[in-house]
Every structure is written in structure tokens, then in C-alpha cells.
Description:
The protein is an alpha/beta fold. It contains 12 helices and 14 strands. The chain folds into 2 domains: 229 residues, Rossmann fold; 72 residues, Alpha-Beta Plaits, CATH 3.30.70.260. It binds adenosine-5'-triphosphate (ATP). InterPro entries: AAA+_ATPase, ABC_transporter-like_ATP-bd, ABC_transporter_ATP-binding. This is ABC transporter ATP-binding protein.
Amino acid sequence: MEPVIEVKSLRKTYKKRKTKELIQAVSDVTFSVNRGEIVGLLGPNGAGKTTTIKMICGLLIPDSGTITINGQNNQKKRLKSLRHISAVLEGNRNLYWRLTVRENLEYFAGNRGESKKDVANRIDELLVKFHLKDKEKELVNRLSRGMQQKLAIAVAMLAESDVILLDEPTLGLDVETGYEVRELLREIVQEYDRTIIISTHDMDVVQDLCDRTIIVNKGKIVTDDKVENLLRLFEVRSYTISLSALLSEKQQILLDQKFPDYKYTPDTIGSKLEIDLAKSEEIYDLFDILKMNMTPVESIDRGTINFEQIFMKIVKGEQQNVLVQSS
Ligand SMILES: Nc1ncnc2c1ncn2[C@@H]1O[C@H](COP(=O)(O)OP(=O)(O)OP(=O)(O)O)[C@@H](O)[C@H]1O
């Protein structure tokens, strides 16, 4: 499949105004996105997500590297390439607060040679889809944050560009509205054949919505893989073992050496071990340690793991060697 977006060896350094200190916000970032994919750009604060998004939509110029959108270099063929992209940055900022919902949509629909009736029909369709029909005459500054966010996405849809970039689309939304926005985004991809890149801290967005996730940390990509692959990979490695005895001190020292991040919970009648294995063969090392004292094993469960825990593990660097660019 041909990629819609190709980002190669991207770098961006900021210079702090007062101290003149250089900050390497993005260093050597390379990835591509295929048509119809929803890709989550994930990372801790300051990882370089917004900088990357801003470079893709042409708001920032990279120090080096290239960005190609539908085969067009976004610096050499600026207008042609940027026509394929809409961006919703910092949520509701790209709306006119003193215009109504409908007026905003009319304004952004602009003059593209369509008849007034066609524009009105398209706006009506979006108002219904985004559950904003009964708010069409409301001023934007009177809307809730969730409604403003939905309107901002509807505005991005109007441009009919192939790619929509979203920076933190669920930030500050309550659980219900966050869910509603996620559902809308899913429908957009399915019904309108759009490609979406979402920068987010919201693990539900990644787990529910994204096909793939690119995790960045300190300006570099640490993981680029399908969400289902990561879930499977970590589920296989994460074990909870119930024992009907306590572990000896020697056993605990050996576990410490072999599995530094294991968790041991002694109880009155037994104990519990929670352990992540870097390779599945390591289970035999674990059994060797348990066998030393013939510690009786009551049950072994493969741990369920959510995306938040996976993210923490990856960002902490525990699984780095295995995961970098594994897709
Ligand atoms: N205009 C700027 N001038 C100086 N430094 C900046 C500027 N914008 C961002 N930075 C710095 O660049 C780094 C990357 O910032 P960026 O906003 O891209 O990260 P992010 O992953 O989007 O973070 P967050 O999740 O907190 O929004 C950070 O260290 C940030 O402080």
C-alpha cells in the first residue's frame, strides 16, 4: 500500500529566547502512514509530538529531514501538499468564538465553486453526524468544551482533505464526551476514507481507535507497531503466579537478580508473584528458582495488561531492544 505520509529523518531544535539554550525537540524521526490508517502518536510530556505534528502540517520548518504528503514534498510543493491535510491543533482554537456553529462551518466551507445548496447540504450532514444540529445557532463561546471539540473536527472534515491531524482531541473532556469523540473519529475513518494521526495522552484513544501506535520519547521513536501486536506481546510476557508457600530469602535474592522488576506479595497462607518475562524461555529460570525449595505452585495466569501499563513499560525503556521499529 502506498503511504499517504512519509516522514524521513526529521529534526527540530528550539533555542530558548532568554537563555539561548538549545532544545532538541525532535531528532531523527522516520515513519510512514498508509491511507485509511489511524495512527496514535504517543509519548510523555515534552516528547516531541506537537512539534512533529506542526512540522507535518507546515506550521514549523524542520532543521533537516523530509515530509512527503501524497507524494509531494511539503516544503518544495507547499500548497499542493498541504491541500491534503487538515489539522485540529489545541482543540477549539481554530474556531471563531463570536460566530455561531453554523456560521463557523459556512465560513470554513469557503468558496470552492460549490452551489450554496450543496454547501448547505454538506453542513447539515455534518451537523447531524456530529450531534450539533440543535446547537447550530449557538455562539461557539457558549458551547461546552466537548461540543467545541466536535465542531473543530467537523470543520476539519469540511476541507475534504485525505489526512486529519489531531492534537489531543480528548484533552479535558469528560468520560462520556471522550467516548463520543472517539466514536465519531472511528466513523469518519470508516465512512469517509480518511487517514488520521492523533497525538494523545489518552490510552483509551489508542486502545479503542488506533490501528498502530508510534511512541516517542525525548524526540526519538521508541516503538512503531500495531496496537494489537503490542497488547499480545505484553500479555504473553506478563505472569501472575500464586504459590501456596512463602519464598525463602535466597529465592528472593535470585529473583531480584534475574527479574529486577518482579513484584512479590506474601500472604498469611501463601504468596503471589507478578513477573514480566523478556523472553518466554525465561519461565524455565523462574521454575528453577521455585524448584529449589519445591515451592508449591497453585496457579499460573497470563496477566491481563492494558495499554497504559504497556506505555509505561516502553517509555521506561524496559523493552526497548525488542520493540524499536518492530513493525
Ligand atoms: N516554541 C518553543 N520554544 C522552545 N522550546 C520548545 C518550544 N516548543 C516546544 N519546546 C520544547 O520542545 C520539546 C518538545 O515539545 P512538544 O510540545 O513537541 O512535546 P509534546 O510531546 O507535544 O509534549 P506535551 O505532551 O507536553 O504536549 C519540549 O522540551 C518543549 O519544552
